[in-house]
Every structure is written in structure tokens, then in C-alpha cells.
Amino acid sequence: MSSEKASSSENIVSQKYDRCLADFLVKAGVGFSVGVVASVILFRRRTWPIALSTGFGMGAAYADCDRSFNPARVSGTRIISQTDESK
Q: Where, per UniProt, does this protein localize (predicted)?
């Protein structure tokens, strides 16, 4: 083996999962915080703004993770094969 450290597919997938988990925790936490502030200031301490904004954060994190694992699902992108590049 060479002295350069090659990235195995397991390491790449592991890094993507780690990034997805960190993104999920951050976005859900920000959504929760925004929901608490909105609930206290605007909605007389109701619980639905907290659940709604936490859900928005979780959904945004899920969409980002989905794009990370399936880049072909992003609208407006094209997967070009090597035979098409030579034309």
C-alpha cells in the first residue's frame, strides 16, 4: 500500500452520516429555539409553534441529507457519462 491515505467507501459514507447527524441536530435545535421564542412572544405560550418550527428544521436537514446521498435527485442537475463527455 502507498503512504497516501486512500478514502474507502465506508469512510466516505461514514463522513456523510456524521455530517447529516450534525446538520439534523443543529437545524432541529434552531427550529426548536425559534419555536420557543415565537411561542412565548407571539402565540401566548402555545405548543404548536414549537412543533412546527422543529419539524421545519428536521425537514430541511432531511432534504440536505437526501441531496448528499442522492445527488441525481436534485432538480436541474444532469449525470453525464464518460461517453457523453468526449463529444
A: Mitochondrion inner membrane
Q: In the predicted model, what is the mean pLDDT of residues 38-45?
A: 92
Please enumerate, as own/partner, the contacts of 18-27 that have beta carbons within 8 Å and a separation of 24 or more.
19/65, 19/68, 20/61, 20/64, 20/65, 20/68, 23/61, 23/64, 23/65, 24/58, 24/61, 24/62, 24/65, 26/61, 27/57, 27/58, 27/60, 27/61
Q: Is 33 exposed, middle or buried (0-12, 13-18, 19+ CB in 10 A)?
A: middle
49/84: higher pLDDT:
49
Q: What is the mean pLDDT of residues 69-86?
A: 71
CA dihedral 65, 70, 71, 76 (to 10 degrees): -100
Tell me if 32 sits within 8 A of 54, measured CB to CB: yes
